[in-house]
Amino acid sequence: MPITTRPATPADAAAIAKIYNQGIEDRIATFETRPRTPEEITRWFDGVHPIVVAEEAGQVVGFASTSSYRPRDCYSKTAEFSVYVGRDHRGRQVGRQALGALIEESRKAGLHKLVSRIFPENVASRAACRAAGFREVGVYKEHGQL
After folding, report:
1. Domain count, the chain
2. Range of 101's domain?
3. Taking 90 as the threshold, does the pLDDT of residue 76 lie above it?
């Protein structure tokens, strides 16, 4: 079945939480250590920062989201982004499709720049970002502890 993307809605919060929590468990995508509830995910929908989902046969199999980069006004058009794919759909270009859709939605939202921090071990995410035109500008050493 083909993968499609669309803007996420709060009704997607449970599916997003499930996929995000897999990323927390796998320890290669986030420094988060505490699972998130759908209620917590619902708070991501602030009307400013786009979130998209990737679906297969009506089932959410991945998502990409933006969030505030820094609180200073000069960064109001810069957002940090993340991409997560459910375990059963990794390696199928879902992340690349979600990222492409997020870039488009971010443009529509008036964002000027997207940035991310990716674990060096997360080869798939780094490749997807390169394919989308992003470049690596540095590596944090011992930036956090899990």
Report:
1. 1
2. 3-131
3. yes
